[in-house]
Amino acid sequence: MSTYKNAITLKGFLGKDAEPRTNVNQSPYTVLSLATKRTYKDKESGEYVSHTEWHRIIAYGRLAESAKSLTKGAYVEVEGELQSREYTEESGPKKRRFWEVRANSVTKLERTQHQAGQNLDVEPTEEGLPA
Question: Where do the domains of the chain lie, and which CATH numbers do they carry?
């Protein structure tokens, strides 16, 4: 039995079509941009506030092959591991760290009628992130 566990499960909507790519070893991988949303009541104003969080999902191998057909708006559940990577900015020696999910499974789910009317607050962005 393992002492450590790195597991994450996310359920949300894709903000753009899946992006199939290949790495320097010519191995296929697919990048997904997944939006999760939460709503909470602001204590001061008493109004409900909605917040969208964007997650970078990376699928490798056979999973990448099946995930590459997913399109914007697809409702999916992703199970995987949270990982961080560092890169050095092109404009200088400053190192940056970003987080992504290495997918172990990606399951396309059926949307309910209520979910079909939901829209996302903002568009996904990957400015400055390395491939």
Answer: 8-116 (2.40.50.140)
